[in-house]
Specification:
177 residues, Four Helix Bundle (Hemerythrin (Met), subunit A), 8 helices
Length: 177
């Protein structure tokens, strides 16, 4: 699926409301939903670096069969290769992907406090760098789920900043649909 277009006019208040919502849902829903939001943010940040493309090309790039950027992993690799982020955020994105996959690909009960998930969350470093601007939300709390959500927040803020820093994008003539 191509990145959703909800980033246009996206405010800090909307972002904080999303984070607040993640506190009140199950660990599985929080893990998958936060990673899905980050996946969309990463796709939108990549799209901001490309030439202007229409819906058909967005589908070809992000969602058609054999689309080169259809997975969270491929977006992460290309984002790193384009310099959207450095090795530290790349490592955190890979951990977030692994955590998301653990929750998404098992039918057994799973929580952030489970040993394997908590160990992965303890390796996240973005949560330590991005506590500014959260206000009371998630700052006074701790634990693996909070570290995961804080990391998603920090990385998403970085990517949104990258999107906003792109001043103009070239456009090719509309030869191809």
């Amino acid at each position: 699926m191509p990145p959703r277009d909800y980033f246009e006019g996206f405010s800090d208040g909307t972002f904080l409301a999303l984070l607040g919502e993640l506190q009140d849902v199950s660990d599985r829903v929080a893990a998958i939903s936060a990673a899905a939001f980050l996946d969309d943010t990463l796709g939108a940040a990549l799209l901001a670096r490309f030439v202007k493309v229409g819906v058909t090309w967005k589908d070809r790039i992000f969602s058609s069969p054999n689309a080169p950027l259809s997975s969270f992993y491929s977006k992460t690799v290309i984002g790193y290769a384009l310099g959207l982020f450095g090795p530290t955020i790349y490592a955190d994105l890979d951990i977030i992907r692994k955590i998301r996959n653990e929750f998404a690909h098992t039918a057994t009960p799973l929580q952030f406090n489970d040993t394997a998930i908590a160990a992965l969350c303890s390796r996240l470093t973005s949560s330590n760098r991005f506590q500014m601007g959260l206000g009371p939300l998630l700052v006074s709390e701790s634990g693996p789920k909070v570290e995961y959500v804080r990391s998603v927040y920090g990385i998403a803020v970085t990517l949104l900043g990258q999107m906003r820093s792109v001043s103009s994008r070239p456009a090719f003539p509309s030869v191809l649909p």
